[in-house]
What does this fold into?
Amino acid sequence: MMLLEHGVMQGFLFTSSRLIDFYLVLFPGVLLGLSLMLNGKDIGSALSDTANNHKWGIILTVCGVVLMDFSADSADNPSHAYMMDVCSPADQDRGLNIHALLAGMLSWCSLSYVNPK
It folds into this structure.
């Protein structure tokens, strides 16, 4: 999403830019990490895990979480820097507030999904 957002904001798509190159490197990391995180158990059982031994499933799931978290966090800072360079102070304030609101809402939704009451 960020790749398309910045491409449209700058008036071009898929031309050489440091920011877009940065996102092109991190985007596969997010996808691979998410895939490993969601399918670590299945991949581990396909490799060599048994009913009592889930060693590879746990290792792949943890690696997926770390890879996805690193890639997503690394992509967040350049988007903030880009917004600070391009937007007016009023738009910066609104953008940061929307970002904080959405992050809080998504955290609440994920916690209530994991720990339903």
